[in-house]
Amino acid sequence: MTHLKVGDRVCMEPGIPDPNSKASRLGMYNIDPAVAFWATPPIHGVLTPEVVHWANYTFKLPDNVSFAQGAMVMPFAVGI
Protein backbone atom coordinates (compact mmCIF):
# COMPACT_ATOMS: atom_id res chain seq x y z
CA MET A 1 0.00 0.00 0.00
CA THR A 2 1.26 3.45 -0.79
CA HIS A 3 -1.46 5.65 0.72
CA LEU A 4 0.48 6.03 3.99
CA LYS A 5 3.92 7.22 5.00
CA VAL A 6 5.86 7.45 8.25
CA GLY A 7 4.57 10.38 10.29
CA ASP A 8 1.02 10.40 8.87
CA ARG A 9 -1.74 11.00 11.40
CA VAL A 10 -3.94 7.93 11.25
CA CYS A 11 -6.86 6.09 12.72
CA MET A 12 -6.78 2.31 12.72
CA GLU A 13 -9.28 -0.49 12.74
CA PRO A 14 -8.32 -2.43 15.89
CA GLY A 15 -9.86 -5.70 14.70
CA ILE A 16 -7.66 -7.73 12.35
CA PRO A 17 -9.47 -10.59 10.61
CA ASP A 18 -8.09 -13.71 9.03
CA PRO A 19 -7.56 -12.54 5.42
CA ASN A 20 -8.47 -16.03 4.20
CA SER A 21 -11.76 -16.34 6.09
CA LYS A 22 -15.03 -16.52 4.19
CA ALA A 23 -16.19 -13.24 5.76
CA SER A 24 -13.01 -11.43 4.67
CA ARG A 25 -13.21 -12.80 1.15
CA LEU A 26 -16.81 -11.53 0.93
CA GLY A 27 -15.72 -8.07 2.12
CA MET A 28 -17.36 -8.44 5.54
CA TYR A 29 -14.21 -8.74 7.63
CA ASN A 30 -15.96 -7.18 10.61
CA ILE A 31 -17.98 -10.38 11.17
CA ASP A 32 -15.04 -12.78 10.87
CA PRO A 33 -15.31 -15.11 13.89
CA ALA A 34 -11.50 -15.31 14.04
CA VAL A 35 -10.95 -11.54 14.23
CA ALA A 36 -8.20 -10.54 16.69
CA PHE A 37 -8.31 -7.20 18.51
CA TRP A 38 -5.50 -5.03 19.84
CA ALA A 39 -5.45 -5.02 23.66
CA THR A 40 -7.53 -8.19 23.94
CA PRO A 41 -5.68 -11.28 25.17
CA PRO A 42 -3.46 -12.73 23.89
CA ILE A 43 -2.54 -9.51 22.02
CA HIS A 44 -0.95 -6.73 24.07
CA GLY A 45 -2.31 -3.19 23.92
CA VAL A 46 -0.95 -0.29 21.94
CA LEU A 47 -0.41 2.40 24.57
CA THR A 48 2.71 3.49 22.73
CA PRO A 49 3.66 6.35 20.41
CA GLU A 50 4.30 3.94 17.52
CA VAL A 51 2.85 0.66 16.34
CA VAL A 52 3.16 -1.49 13.21
CA HIS A 53 -0.29 -2.16 11.81
CA TRP A 54 -1.72 -3.49 8.54
CA ALA A 55 -2.13 -0.67 6.01
CA ASN A 56 -5.43 -2.17 4.83
CA TYR A 57 -6.90 -1.36 8.24
CA THR A 58 -5.23 2.03 8.74
CA PHE A 59 -6.83 5.26 7.55
CA LYS A 60 -5.21 8.68 7.17
CA LEU A 61 -6.87 11.43 9.19
CA PRO A 62 -7.81 14.55 7.21
CA ASP A 63 -5.97 17.70 8.26
CA ASN A 64 -9.18 19.18 9.72
CA VAL A 65 -9.62 16.21 12.11
CA SER A 66 -7.79 16.50 15.44
CA PHE A 67 -6.12 13.62 17.27
CA ALA A 68 -8.90 13.85 19.88
CA GLN A 69 -11.58 13.52 17.18
CA GLY A 70 -9.65 10.69 15.53
CA ALA A 71 -9.51 8.86 18.86
CA MET A 72 -13.31 8.96 19.00
CA VAL A 73 -13.88 7.31 15.61
CA MET A 74 -13.98 3.73 16.93
CA PRO A 75 -16.17 4.45 20.00
CA PHE A 76 -18.50 6.46 17.76
CA ALA A 77 -18.67 3.61 15.22
CA VAL A 78 -19.47 1.11 17.99
CA GLY A 79 -22.26 3.39 19.21
CA ILE A 80 -23.77 3.61 15.78
Report what the structure shows.
Helix content is 20%, strand content 12%. The protein is α+β, with helices and mostly antiparallel strands and 80 residues long. The protein has one domain. The strands form two sheets. A two-stranded antiparallel sheet has the order 1-4.
Q: What keyword list fits this structure?
A:
80 residues; two-stranded antiparallel ribbon; 3 helices; alpha+beta
Brief write-up:
The chain is of the alpha+beta class and 80 residues long.
Low-confidence stretches: none
Structural class: alpha+beta
How many beta-strand elements? 4
Give the strand content.
Answer: 5-15%
- Large-scale geometry: globular
Give the SSE string.
EEHEEHH
Please describe the biggest sheet, giving its number of strands, its sense, and whether it closes into a barrel.
Answer: 2 strands, antiparallel
Provide the domain count.
Answer: 1
Strand order of the largest sheet: 1-4
Helix content: 10-25%
Instruction: Write down the Rg.
Output: 13 Å
| Mean of residue pLDDT values | 86
Number of helices: 3
Separation, N- and C-terminal Cα atoms: 29 Å
Task: Give the arrangement of secondary structure elements.
Blueprint: E1 10-12, E2 15-16, H1 22-25, E3 36-37, E4 58-60, H2 67-71, H3 73-79
Antiparallel strand pairs: 1-4, 2-3
